[in-house]
Design brief:
Elements (H helix, E strand, L loop, with lengths): L5 E8 L10 E8 L1 E2 L2 E2 L5 E6 L4 E6 L9 E8 L6 E7 L14 E2 L10 E8 L26 E7 L5 E6 L7 E8 L3 E6 L7 E4 L7 E10 L2 E2 L3 E6 L9 E8 L2 E7 L7 E8 L3 E9 L4 E4 L7 E10 L2 E2 L3 E6 L9 E5 L2
Antiparallel strand pairs: 1-2, 1-10, 2-7, 3-4, 5-6, 5-8, 8-9, 11-12, 12-15, 13-14, 13-16, 16-17, 16-18, 19-20, 19-27, 20-23, 21-22, 21-24, 24-25, 24-26
Length: about 350
Amino acid sequence: MILTALLLAIVLIAPQSVKAQSPVPMLFTGTASLDGKLVASGTVITVYTARGFKVGSATTGASGQAANAWTTTIFDTSLEDQTLYFYITLSSGTILPASDQKQVTAVYDAEGGRGRATVTIDVQTPTAKPTPTPTPIPTAARLTLPEAPSSFQAISDGAKGMLLTWRDAATNEDGYELWRWDVMIGWKLVGVPAPNAVSYADSGLSVGVTYYYYIGAYNSLGYSDFVLASATTPAPTLQMPSGVRVDVSGTAARLSWRDDTTSEDGYELWRWNERAGWTYLGGLAANSSSYADSGLTPGAIYWYYLASYSGTTYSAWAEISAEIPAQAPAATTTTRTAN
């Protein structure tokens, strides 16, 4: 039910010889009505100053008074400087808030040394006393696993390098771990990109090989899911060594050739002899163009096979033979070139 305005009349009676700065008891009396009807006996009247101090209270119908009458004595040192708030507490416990009350100031009339004032308060529709909303206490964010990177891809640079890119989806990572797998080496941790990184360059790869990359974000709590990307370095264009020749001097043979390939990992050289069979002379470094073989058997014939390689891919094999003289003078040199 919507309550209409009502009038609460209060008469202020000050004792004789009121001094402005003296603590003087002041008697407040009045009657109370609500919604045009007298309030019930036992209704509480409470008085507060503007500073929030309770300075008086009364109960209607107390001390032999009429059911809606009340009386209270207030002590204060300077009520003439105070604003008073009058609250009526209903039997349900509802309190009329100050916003629904007209602010009232005690007024003194110096005539005859007595103070008198009539205080009128408009009491509006009772509303619940406002409950203060507590200010939320900030709490530390709970740490969670980081989000996995997305849009991960591997792009060959056309030679022996790979560019890895991804989208940084995490906001709480301490960094990333990047792993690589290939059929020749297996698993290898190739990098630990910093937080918020979005790319990584991998180099020194073999051509014609498929590489698989796995990347995940991590923090102190653990790892995100790992995501996969793969790419294949382009197959090499390997040229068979050309211009191969062999110079024999005594029991030594020196091979030389033109390094026509630009993408080799190196050269592989084998030797064959009727008595000794196959002998692996070793893997020669990339861009090599000569090799010296010594300690050969006089009167023997040796066959040499040379090819460039990259990863597991080989060029065609170049072939050349060298005949070691049975009793050739040490200063004699015999030269032979491949067909």
